[in-house]
Amino acid sequence: MDQEGPCLVVACDGSDQSLKAVKLAARLAEATGQPLKLLAIYPYAKSSSLVVAGVERGTIDAERARYGREVFDSAIPALGGLIDSPEEILLNGDPAHEILEYMHAHPDAHMVLGRRGYSMVRSLLLGSVSEKVVRHATGPVTVVGG
């Protein structure tokens, strides 16, 4: 396990909800003096569909890097100038699973994420990343409503 000390980690995907989470995380980081990390997850379904389509590994890696850059670039303005050069972490897989694995490996991390705002029925039937993370988290989680 990585024992690097307390930090705030905000899950980003470029959505309006994740940008609200970035804004809140930046304010929390500034108020507490904790480092802020941006976490993006390239969905496993995207890379799987590219593999099935016969796309070369180098092309998949480039697509993953492009996705990460777009997500991180969209988050920077939401920081409001409060945080300079946050660490950027790009993972690959199921978003809820990857967030939970990250939290397990970094027990001092406080995760901040947006809620998609699905209807109650859809959330109950399908679940959501934020609900899965809150249900199984090993550390503090702040969910920002949309």
TrEMBL record:
Residues 9-144 form the UspA domain. SUPFAM superfamilies: Adenine nucleotide alpha hydrolases-like. Pfam families: Usp. It comes from the Bacteria. Belongs to the universal stress protein A family. This is Universal stress protein. It comes from Marinobacter qingdaonensis.
